Description:
The protein is α/β, with parallel strands linked by helices. The protein has helices spanning 47-51, 119-123, 128-141, 157-168, 180-187, 203-210, 224-231, 263-266, 283-295, 312-321; strands at residues 2-7, 20-25, 35-43, 72-79, 89-92, 99-101, 111-112, 148-151, 172-177, 194-197, 215-220, 234-242, 270-273, 303-307, 327-331.
Amino acid sequence: MNRQWLLASRPQGMVSPENFEWREADVPEPGEGQALVRNLYLSLDPAMRGWMSDAPSYVPPVGIGEVMRGGCVARVERSNDPELAEGSLVAGMFGWQDYALTGGEGPLRPSRIPDGVEPALALGALGMTALTAYWGLAEIGKPQPGETVVVSAAAGATGSVVGQIAKIRGCRVIGIAGGPEKCALLTGELGFDGAIDYRSEKVAARLRELCPDGIDVYWDNVGGEILEAALANLAMHARIVICGAISQYNAETPPGGPRNYMNLLVKRSRMEGFLVFDYAARNGEALAELVPWVTEGKVRQPADVRDGLENAPAALLDLFEGRNSGKLMVRIAS
Ligand code: NDP
C-alpha cells in the first residue's frame, strides 16, 4: 500500500491540516528507465505554503487532488534505471507518500547520496537548506572577515547554517530568533556572538546596541518588521540576502513594506533575492566545503524529527508557529 497526502484545498490565510486528504493507493510499478523508491524522510519547508497557493511563483502550484510536493531521502527498491542501484539512497522531490517513481530531468532528477551519509544528515546539515545558506552567502552576502552578519529565523534549518558559515568566514554573527531557548542555543552550542529574542525584545533597538557600526550582511528569512529593523541599522555598502519571508507566507493581504527601503540609498546598499535550485549544477563545490565542516563539527545542525507520515500536516504548521528547532523532517520509514 502507498499511503499519501493529497492537496485537498488551497489555504486561505494560515495553512491547516484540513487542506490535506489522506489516501491509500497501490504501490506503482516502475516503467522503463524508472525506479521505485521508498521514502525514508520527508523534508518540511516553508516554501510548501507557497506551492499550495494558486499564485505565480518559481514553480507551478500543486494541483488539487495531487500528491503534495516535498523533498525526500529515499531508498531505491526496484530499478530499471542503470544509474540508480537497488538499495542505494537518493534525494529527490518524491512527495508526501511512502513510494514514488523517479522520472524527470534537471532539478527533478534524483541525486545519489554518498555512501556513509545518514539519511537525516542528507536532509539537514548537508541538505537543501544548508546549500541555501552556502550559496546565498557565497554569491550574494559575500561576508568578509571582521564584518557583522545578522540572520533572522536563526535557530532554524537555513539560519543556523548561515550563522555558522559566517563564523567560519571570520565574521561577528548576531541571530534573531523566537524565545529564550532558541537564543541560548545560538550563543551556546552554535557559537553566535549575540542573539535577539524578537518575541520579547525590541529588534531595532537591540540591533543598534549589538551592531554599533551597522550591519554588513543581513540574511532575511522572515521579511516584515524584522526586515525593516535591519534596514534601519545598515552599515555602508551592506548586502541584504533575500532568502525568504516566512512572516508573510500566510498573510491574507499583501505586505505593506518595507517602509524604510530608502536606507538602501542612504547606505549605498543592495538587497537581492536568490533561489538555491539555480546553483544545483554546482552543488559539488558547496559540498566540498560543507562535508568537512560537518565532519569536523564546525557546522552543527539540530535535526527536529517527527515520526510518521500521518503527522506531516501538523508538522508543517509548526514551521509557522516556530515550534521547530533546526531542520524539521518527518521519518516515514527506516
Ligand atoms: P526554519 O527551519 O527556519 O523554520 C522556520 C522558522 O521561521 C520557524 O522555526 C520560526 O522560528 C520562524 N518564523 C515563523 N514564523 C515567523 C514569523 N511570523 N516571524 C518571524 N519568524 C518566524 O525554515 P527553513 O530554514 O526551511 O526556511 C527559512 C527561510 O528560508 C524561509 O523563509 C524559507 O522560505 C527560506 N528558504 C529559501 C530558499 C531559497 O532558495 N531562497 C531555500 C530554502 C528556504 P522562530 O521560533 O525563531 O520564530
